[in-house]
Request: fold
Amino acid sequence: MPVIDVQHDLDSRTLTITAEFAAGRERIWQLYADPRQLEKIWGPPTYPATVVDHSLTPGGLVTYFMTSPEGEKFAGYWKVTAVDEPRTFSFEDGFANQDLTPNPNMPVAHNVYTFTEQDGRTRAEYVSTYETAEGLQKVLEMGVIEGSSAAIDQIDTLLAS
Reply:
């Protein structure tokens, strides 16, 4: 399983997940740069994603739905703030209404994804900083650690295919 460490800190409002993959950095980058590949790894296995918009460029927007086993759709968005391909990208990550507009009643995180390659393997660090400790606590209670870890763990299967 790729996830090797998970830390959260309410005082700094951060959630950090570290993972390692048996693939080069450019290959890992493509998982996020290609919307069809992103659909296979964004969201836990039982909540597959459907990417609607995808612009992994500064100022770009990514919108998506995750669909529950019962068919219920949950929308989200990324507002991309910085990109340094294939090393890192950052984005505001939020929940959306069904029309894909930001839901102001739900927490927003500023995410920084960093990929470091060594000996043909890639270490990924996923850092989410929430606007408030309450926002982080809310997503922790919603299962963000379990869901994110399960989503990231899907990457090995995709790399092997």
